[in-house]
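Example (one chain per record):
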Amino acid sequence: MKCHLLAVGRRMPDWVAAGYEEYARRLGGQVRLQLHEIAPHRRSSRDSAERAMQIESERLLAAVPEGTRVVALDERGAAWNTRELADRLAQWLGSGQDMTLLVGGADGLAPACLEAAEVKWSLSPLTLPHGLVRVVVAEQLYRAWSLLNNHPYHRA
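Predicted structure:
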């Protein structure tokens, strides 16, 4: 299964790229995590947060590969524990359908992205830096995969 991680933002610190790449690499062939960086909107003093969010969301939706199931990362989404994420991952793998995860910019996702999503996933009630979200998503997918495959990484 291909898992497309569409994230608004470019030029992340080296530690973000290293962390993301480490867990994406560990996933191997069964789940191929691919990062697609979406250019953030350059706001002028006349632009509102809503306008920036709208433009970035249009860019995100335009980049969603056709036929993929869409999951929006949103603070108001469902918070899954590791076992629940592993169960979801098993369902997604079993469907044979590729998936796309949407990560908004500094202002979040516009309603159009949330409406396009089959499900909304909250990583935490905390506000996380966007670079860290990439690392956490990759690590949590790897942890869920390791649980499904009886790999010793997950020891809970």
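Caption: The chain has a mean pLDDT of 91.
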